[in-house]
Amino acid sequence: MIRLILSRIGQGVITLLVLITLTFFLVRAMPGSPYTDEKAIPAHVLARMKAYTGLDLPLPVQYFRYLKNLVVNQDLGDLIKRDGVKVSEIIGESFPVSLGLGVLSIGIALTLGIPAGMISAVKRNTFIDYSCLAAAMVGICLPSFVIGPLLAVGAGLGLKSLNVAGWSSPTDWILPAVTLGVINAAYLARLTRGGMLDVLSQDYIRTARAKGVSESGIVIRHALRGGLIPAVAFIGPAFAGIISGSFVIETIFQVPGMGQHFVNAATDREFFLIQGLVLFYGFLIVGANLLADLAQIVLNPRLRKS
Amino acid sequence: MFGRIALLIIPCMSLLGSCQKESQVDQATREGVLLVGNASEPKGLDPHIVSGLLEANILRALFEGLVSNDPENDTAAPAGAALEVTPDATATVWTAKLRPGGKWSDGMPVTARDFAFSYERILTPELGAKYAEMLYFLKGAEDFNKGVTKNFSTVGVEVIDDETLRLTLRGPTPYFREVLKHYTWTAVPRHVVLKFGTIGQRGNPWTRLENIVGNGPYKLKSWRRTDHIEVERNPYYWNAANVTLNGVRFLPITNTYTESRMFRDGQLHITYAAPPEVVDLMKKEHPEQLRQEPYVGTSFYRFNTKRKPLNDLRVRQALSFAVDRKLLCDTVFRGYIPAYAMTPPLGKYDPPHIAAYDQDKARKLLTESGYPGGHEFPRLKILISSKETAATLAQAVQAMFRKSLGIEVEIENKEWNAYLVAMQDLDYDIAYGGWIGDYLDPLTFLEMWTPNNGNNNTGWDSPEFVKILQQSFQESDATRRFEQLYQAETILIGDAPILPIAWQVKNYLVHPSVEGWHPLLLGNNSYQYIRLVPGR
Question: What HEC string does chain A produce?
Fold first, then answer.
């Protein structure tokens, strides 16, 4: 077990190093630079600006300076277009917002998706099953930029106490969390249903039935643990994605989260911010995958031996 | 599953709906705080570093220049930090008499030394200020900024005493008061800037929330990135007793649809913009809340005059005559003004009426250039960036070229940076562009077309145009100067390196409770004299 964890951590470190290197060179291969501007910057000013951020140095020098700064000072660098602002400040301010919103929406997704999937599986091929499946399909097919504005117009404009967007009162969490939650609930419902159906047809379930275990006992005590495996495999990486924010949700609901920075940093050519965000996201993904692996081992005894 | 969700949500919501609370606008109106949509998170609050419009909106609350902005009249130049700014007979040497007792928001006096320090700072080469060229009006400023000399005393800035500042310009500048309104000419507090760094240091933390000091009607109250910036009354402002608005909250709402929804939900007094669909809707539902005001901005296409067949004047003119600007303004831009030149009409300046829609002329010119009926005309590309209006416009123009001239053009949509690079490298045929004036004078629309200017990007080079512009730099008579600029613009539009489409109109929404928000060409509304009237 410990060996497995250690080897996963080792793999994670290598993954992150590859990620840093790739990101570093890819962002610099994009056309334009942080200084490309609608109003041209005079050459002598441009030279000063580049000297200030070190972007005038040869690429390999820049790369090793970045790595050194990262490892020795644990510093992700400064923003290029915003004087004196650190990448770590941006992540530090926006991540808690996205984390809170993400956890809430995962909560919504789990409370809606897993029971729906279970009921669907137990009442297989009935009207209930079909309606759950259809609803889940709608949830998967409708993108967040459709559900979001619909909810904003329907609930936000309709109800006085709910704001259509913004981040000033606790109720402002509701609409973005519901939008994110509903979409993930749809995935979870389908995965849980599939997993449950698989388990419910196993021999040991038949044995349990033969022993006279009640139907609810079978579903909750025997089938659920195995049936959740696909959902857990999904939720691990999805969790990292959700808590690091969503550009669409943040734009629709004016949430000061981290997702918008992924897109804006790329269009702004904020090199160090992109690198910092990708590294941070990579870190979350590696961590979440590790946790998902461990959770699967707990759920599935057969994995423990391998 | 949606049924279940609805079952869960509806009781929660009806619970929420039952507690009737006042809207954010009602609350803010009661508190005297204006809620303003401001497009995007500002790049900073240092007037010497930033270069954008949305930053200017916030800086206007925090800093005040030698002259101030009039709330109603574009060309008036009311006293600001200076009681008066007076020119000599040739409008070359200007003397500013500072307001005695003027104070920074920390209570320290605002002196002529602060202004001299500020002009030295923005021009210091090490600072790398993007907009330093706004100060090139000062004698010797360009040389100092480019490092030709390290001696700031060669620049036309002279402190006579604590309350008197003398500015010597590179030539007669009768419109200098307009230039002084730009935020690059405001003062930064010398004592604060030097406390946190040196004069030429970038990344100086003096503009952070806890450090920033200004001389405007407001001071910074709170700042949460990508959420809001709020300013509150500055008790040390010279006219604090007459400031009617208690504060302004700027919201960086990037999506105009979100912004419009927030406006309709009572979360904003004023939006930054209104998308076309919302303009249509508001015209029907609340025309009194929709503002459509002329703005000093021009939308146009650049021609790459170095490429065939666009190097032929007749081809460029033919394309220009083929475009029905009125139709584009009505349908695509929802209310823009058809442009017949580059500079929008500004006060006494009416640009030459040249660009027009004339299909017959267009066809004739194209035939003369060797492409009768568009026969064998090469397939050109219209370069745009991925913005919606630009795409719709390009499609309409594509159809107009086809209809009027029988030629086919393609639309090439590039990501913003890639688009800018292609334009700056002259790697395009026809490119969409926009320009917004920095100050109210035709020069801000004409100077960019000189051959060495980084914003020209057309390959167009007219010695005659340059000669006339340079003559205008030496002209102290305002009328004669406008005549020269008119002549220069006649050459520009006649030579057609650009195809002017429309003069911009600012479409936005204003809540009925806001009183004293007047249409201004530069959109540089001051906040301090606005009144918020509850119950509307």
Answer: CHHHHHHHHHHHHHHHHHHHHHHHHHHHHCCCCCCCCCCCCCHHHHHHHHHHHCCCCCHHHHHHHHHHHHHHHCCCCECCCCCCCEHHHHHHHHHHHHHHHHHHHHHHHHHHHHHHHHHHHHCCCCHHHHHHHHHHHHHHHCCHHHHHHHHHHHHHCCCCCCCCCCCCCHHHHHHHHHHHHHHHHHHHHHHHHHHHHHHHCCHHHHHHHHCCCCHHHHHHHHHHHHHCHHHHHHHHHHHHHHHCCCHHHHHHHCCCCCHHHHHHHHHHCCHHHHHHHHHHHHHHHHHHHHHHHHHHHHHCHHHHHC
